[in-house]
Design a protein that fits this description.
The complex is a heterodimer.
Chain A (H helix, E strand, L loop, with lengths): L1 H16 L23 H16 L2 H7 L4 E6 L5 H12 L3 E6 L11 H10 L4 E6 L4 H9 L3 E6 L5 H14 L4 H5 L12 E5 L6 H9 L6 E5 L16 E3 L3 H5 L4 E4 L14 H8 L3 H7 L4 E3 L12 H5 L5 H21 L6
Parallel strand pairs in A: 1-2, 1-3, 3-4, 5-6, 5-8, 6-7, 8-9
Helix pairs in contact in A: 2-14, 4-14, 5-6, 7-9, 7-14
Chain B lengths: L5 E10 L4 E10 L2 E6 L11 E4 L4 E4 L1 E6 L12 H10 L2 E6 L10 H8 L8 E4 L1 E2 L12 H7 L4 E2 L8 H14 L3 E3 L12 E2 L2 H6 L3 E2 L1 H21 L6 E4 L5 H12 L3 E6 L1 H5 L21 H13 L4 E2 L8 H4 L16 H12 L4 H15 L16 E11 L18 E11 L2 E5 L1
Parallel strand pairs in B: 1-4, 1-5, 6-7, 7-8, 9-10, 10-11, 11-14, 12-13, 14-15, 15-16
Antiparallel strand pairs in B: 1-2, 2-3, 5-17, 17-18, 18-19
Helix pairs in contact in B: 2-3, 4-6, 6-7
The chains are: A alpha/beta, B alpha/beta.
C-alpha cells in the first residue's frame, strides 16, 4: 500500500529529526504542498518546468502519466476555479478523482477532519487536495494520514498553487531582462526590479500571503495596499521585501503587476467598512490604469466583484490577465499532482 | 494523616515565611510541623520515619491556586484523584480547583461532593465556587454558604464577568463574605473567533488574534469598580485577583491599583513567562491556551514582574484535555495545557537559572505567595504549627519530562521532552508521603 509506505517514511523522518529539546512536529509528507515556504527555488523551478512540459504533451500521452491513481478532493468551502482546475488537471493525467464536500458527506454528521482523512486513505486515496475554512487544517490532515496533501486554500492562511500560477503568469507576461529570461531555472534574481502591488483585503487573503511569501524570494518587491482595517501595519513582518503604501495611486505608479483582491464579505465579521469610500480609494479602474500604470499586468485570483474592487473595463481590458491566470492554473496543478504522486512511489 | 512522626534531616530548608535558607532538621507530627532545628539538635524521636534529605532542598509543599480537575462531569479528561496525583508528582500539596465543571460548582452540595473522601484526592483540594449561578453572569451564588462548605474564592473562570452591574455586585458580596473574586480577564466581545495572540505570528498564520486590550480593559474596568465601591463604603475592602495575567498593560494596571492601596493581586502561569506566540509554529494545538502565548515584550514583562514582586503567585492553569480535543483544526481545538508536573522545573529553569532569582523567592511564588492570595492558613510555610506539607527536590538535578509518564489523565503539554531542573524526590502532605520518585 502506498499509504503505508509513506507513513513509515514520515515516522523515520520524525525520528531522525528528534533532538530531545523542544521540537515542532514534522507533518509534511513528501510531495505535499502545504505552504510556499516549504518550496526551495529549485522546487519552484521544477514545478514550473514540469508545468510547461505537461502543457506541451499530447492529451493522449498525458492521460497515461498517472493512469488509475486515486486522488480525493476534499472541499469544506465552495470553489469554482480551484476545484475545477485541480479536477481537470487530475483527469487529464488519467487520475481517478473523487470529490468530497462538506455539504454532501459525513462531515455534516460531525465527522472530524482527522477521521475523514483516515477514511479517504482507507478508500485508496493516494493524495488529498484540501480546501478548508480553518487556517492550518492541511497540517492536521497531513499528520493524520501521512499522505501528500495539496493545500488548495486554508482559511486566511495560504493558497500555494495560486501563488505558483500567478508567478507563471507573471513570467509569461512581464518583459523580464534577458538574463532573467535566459536563466535555466528560477533564481533569487529572476524577478529583480519587478514590483508587485497587492491591493485590498490583505488581512483575510490567503492569496496575498502566499504571493508575499514567495515572490520576494525571487527578487520581487511586494507592496501591500489597502485601508488599515484590511491591512494591519504588522503585515510587513511577513518577510523581507514586503512594504505598505496606503495611497493606491502612488502604489500603482510603481506597479509592474497590479494584483487586486476580492472584498470577502464572508470574512469581514464585525468590521465596519464603508464600501463607497473603499471604491473611491481602491477600485482599479481603466482611468487609474491609464494614468498610473499603463504597462502593468493586471491580475485577480477571482472570483471578482465587478464594480467593487475592480471595474468591468479594467477586468476586461487589454492589461487584464485574469483569464490567462486560470489557464496557467491547470498547468501548475498538473505539475503539483505529478510531484505529489511520483514521490509516493507509484501504484502498489 | 500519618500516625507516625517523621524526621527529615540533612536538607537545606528554604522557607520564605521565616526567611530561612539553611541546613535544618524538620520534625512533622500529627499533621503539622512540630519543630525546625539546627542539624543534630532534634535528638532521637521515638518511632519516627526518618528521611535523609542530604543534598536536597526541603521546602513547603507547593500551592497551585488555579487548576481544573474536571470533576464532576468530565472524568475522561481528569479526575480529582488523577489531577491531585499529578499535583503530588509536581511537588504541590494544595490545589484550588476552578468551578467550570459539569455541573458548575455553584452550590455547597457540589463543593462538598468535590471534598468527599470518595474522590480520593492525594493532596489538599480547595474548591473555588462559581461567582454567578451556572457561571452565566446573571445572578450571584450564595457566597456565605459556599464559603461555609469550603470554597476559598469565587470566579466564573473561562466565562469572564462582563456586565458592570453584576461585577460590582460580585465584588461587594464577596467582600462581605470575605472571599476574593478571581477574574479571567478577557473582554469576549473583542475576541470572537480568535485563537491566539494578535500580532505578526497570527497574521502570518492567518489566525484571528486576541489583543492585549481585550485582557487589559477588563482588569482596568474591575479596578475602576473597586475604586467606586471603596469610595462609597470605607468599610468594604474588595479583593480582586487577576487570574493568569499575561500582558504588560494589565500588569501596569494592577501595579497602579496596588500603589493606590487597593487589594488587587495577580498570578502568572509558567507558560506565559517561558514561551511566546512564536511557539505556535505550524498550528501546534499544544500551544493553544487562553490567554494565549503573547509577544516577547509581554513575556519579559511577566519575568520582570515576578522578579520585582509585583506578581503575587505562579499558578499553572492546569487544563487537561483529551487527545481528540486537541487533534483538530487549530481554531477548533480546546484551550489549555496541563501544568502541574512542569511548574517547578520551568520556574527554576527560567527564573532561578536564567534570571538568578533566589530559591527562597522561587518558593515564595510557588507556595507562600499563592497561599496568601487565597488565605490558605498554614500552607506554603514550614514554621512550627504549619501544615506538615513538604516537598523535597534536587535543584541541581536535571531530568526530562515525558508527557507519556504524566500522572494526569491528559497529555496535552507543550513541554514533552523538555529538560528541566529540580527533580522532585518526595512530596509529603499532612505528614504522609504522597509522591516518591
Amino acid at each position: 500500500m502506498a499509504g503505508k509506505k509513506t507513513a513509515s517514511r514520515v515516522t523515520r523522518q520524525a525520528a531522525a529529526s528528534y533532538t530531545g529539546t523542544p521540537v515542532s512536529k514534522q507533518s509534511n509528507p513528501a510531495g505535499s504542498l502545504l505552504s510556499v515556504t516549504h518550496l526551495s527555488l529549485d522546487d519552484v523551478s521544477g514545478i514550473l518546468q514540469a508545468a510547461t512540459e505537461l502543457e506541451a504533451a499530447s492529451p493522449k500521452e498525458r492521460a497515461t502519466l498517472l493512469e488509475g491513481r486515486k486522488v480525493a478532493l476534499l472541499f469544506y468551502e465552495s470553489s469554482t476555479r480551484t476545484r475545477t482546475s485541480f479536477e481537470l488537471a487530475a483527469k487529464s493525467l488519467g487520475v481517478v478523482t473523487t470529490l468530497v464536500s462538506d455539504k454532501s458527506s459525513s462531515i455534516e454528521k460531525g465527522e472530524s477532519l482527522k477521521d475523514t482523512g483516515i477514511t479517504l486513505r482507507a478508500l485508496g486515496a493516494e493524495c488529498i487536495i484540501l480546501r478548508h475554512l480553518s487556517s492550518g487544517a492541511p497540517w492536521l490532515l497531513a499528520e493524520s494520514t501521512g499522505l501528500p496533501v495539496l493545500n488548495a486554500g486554508d482559511g486566511m492562511h495560504e493558497h500555494p498553487s495560486q501563488a505558483l500560477l500567478d508567478l507563471r503568469t507573471m513570467l509569461a507576461r512581464l518583459r523580464l531582462s534577458p538574463i532573467a529570461r535566459s536563466a535555466a531555472g528560477i533564481t533569487k534574481a529572476t524577478l529583480r526590479g519587478v514590483t508587485v502591488v497587492i491591493t485590498g483585503d490583505i488581512l483575510h487573503s490567503r492569496v496575498a500571503r502566499s504571493n508575499a511569501l514567495l515572490l520576494p524570494r525571487l527578487g520581487a518587491r511586494v507592496i501591500f495596499c489597502g485601508p488599515p482595517e484590511l491591512l494591519p501595519e504588522h503585515a510587513t513582518t511577513l518577510g523581507p521585501g514586503v512594504s505598505i503604501e496606503r495611497d493606491f495611486d502612488k502604489a500603482l505608479a510603481q506597479a509592474d503587476v497590479a494584483m487586486m483582491l476580492r472584498i470577502q464579505k464572508e470574512r469581514l465579521a464585525g468590521l465596519q467598512l464603508d464600501l463607497a469610500q473603499y471604491i473611491d480609494d481602491y477600485q482599479l479602474t481603466a482611468d487609474r490604469l491609464a494614468l498610473y500604470a499603463p504597462k502593468a499586468v493586471v491580475l485577480h485570483p477571482g472570483p471578482i466583484n465587478r464594480g467593487l474592487e475592480i471595474s468591468s473595463e479594467a477586468a476586461d481590458g487589454p492589461q487584464s490577465m485574469i483569464a490567462e491566470q486560470v489557464r496557467h492554473g491547470v498547468a501548475i496543478r498538473m505539475a503539483l499532482l505529478v510531484r505529489a504522486l511520483q514521490s509516493n512511489g507509484g501504484p502498489a | 494523616m500519618s500516625a507516625k512522626p517523621m524526621v527529615i534531616h540533612g536538607g537545606r530548608v528554604v522557607d520564605p515565611a521565616t526567611g530561612t535558607d539553611a541546613l535544618r532538621d524538620l520534625l512533622l507530627r500529627d499533621g503539622t510541623v512540630a519543630a525546625v532545628e539546627k542539624p543534630g539538635q532534634l535528638g532521637k524521636v521515638q518511632g519516627a520515619t526518618v528521611v535523609d534529605a542530604t543534598g536536597l532542598v526541603v521546602a513547603p509543599g507547593l500551592v497551585d491556586i488555579h487548576v481544573h480537575l474536571r470533576e464532576p462531569g468530565q472524568s475522561y479528561k481528569e479526575t480529582i484523584a488523577t489531577g491531585t496525583a499529578a499535583a503530588a508528582a509536581g511537588g504541590f500539596t494544595s490545589v484550588c480547583c476552578m468551578p467550570n465543571t459539569i455541573p458548575v460548582n455553584d452550590t455547597p452540595e457540589i463543593t462538598r461532593w468535590m471534598l468527599a473522601p470518595e474522590r480520593k484526592a492525594v493532596v489538599s483540594v480547595f474548591p473555588i465556587g462559581a461567582a454567578t449561578v451556572g457561571s452565566m453572569g446573571e445572578k450571584l451564588t450564595d457566597y456565605a454558604a459556599l464559603r461555609k462548605a469550603g470554597v476559598v474564592g469565587v470566579s466564573d473562570d473561562g466565562k469572564p464577568i462582563l456586565g458592570d452591574d453584576i461585577m460590582l455586585q460580585t465584588l461587594v458580596a464577596a467582600a462581605r463574605a470575605g472571599l476574593p473574586v478571581i477574574q479571567h480577564a478577557e473582554d469576549t466581545r473583542l475576541t470572537g473567533g480568535c485563537s491566539m495572540n494578535a500580532g505578526p505570528v497570527a497574521f502570518r498564520l492567518g489566525l484571528r488574534g486576541m489583543t492585549v486590550e481585550a485582557e487589559a480593559r477588563i482588569v482596568e474596568r474591575d479596578i475602576k469598580l473597586i475604586r467606586e465601591i471603596v469610595a462609597r463604603d470605607k468599610h468594604l475592602r474588595p479583593h480582586l485577583h487577576v487570574a493568569h495575567l499575561s500582558t504588560s498593560r494589565a500588569l501596569e494596571a494592577v501595579k497602579q491599583a496596588r500603589k493606590d492601596g487597593l487589594h488587587v493581586t495577580c498570578e502568572v502561569a509558567p507558560h506565559h513567562f517561558t514561551l511566546t506566540d512564536e511557539a505556535v509554529g505550524d498550528y501546534d494545538t499544544h500551544h493553544k491556551m487562553n490567554p494565549p502565548l503573547r509577544a516577547e515584550v509581554d513575556r519579559e514583562a511577566m519575568i520582570a514582574g515576578l522578579l520585582d514582586g509585583s506578581i503575587d503567585a505562579i499558578a499553572t492553569d492546569h487544563a487537561p484535555h483529551a487527545a481528540h480535543e486537541k487533534q483538530v483544526e487549530f481554531e477548533r481545538a480546546a484551550n489549555g495545557i496541563t501544568g502541574l508536573e512542569t511548574a517547578l522545573g520551568l520556574t527554576l529553569r527560567l527564573l532561578h537559572r536564567k534570571h538568578g532569582m533566589k530559591l527562597e523567592r522561587v518558593i515564595h511564588l510557588l507556595a507562600l505567595g499563592p497561599a496568601q492570595v487565597l488565605n490558605l492558613h498554614g500552607r506554603g510555610a514550614l514554621a512550627q504549627g504549619a501544615a506538615a506539607d513538604v516537598v523535597l527536590f534536587d535543584p541541581g538535578a536535571d531530568w526530562t519530562f515525558h508527557a507519556s509518564e504524566s500522572r494526569s489523565r491528559s497529555k496535552n503539554t507543550p513541554f514533552d521532552g523538555w529538560s528541566l531542573p529540580g527533580r522532585i524526590a518526595l512530596t509529603i502532605r499532612n505528614g504522609a508521603i504522597v509522591y516518591r520518585r
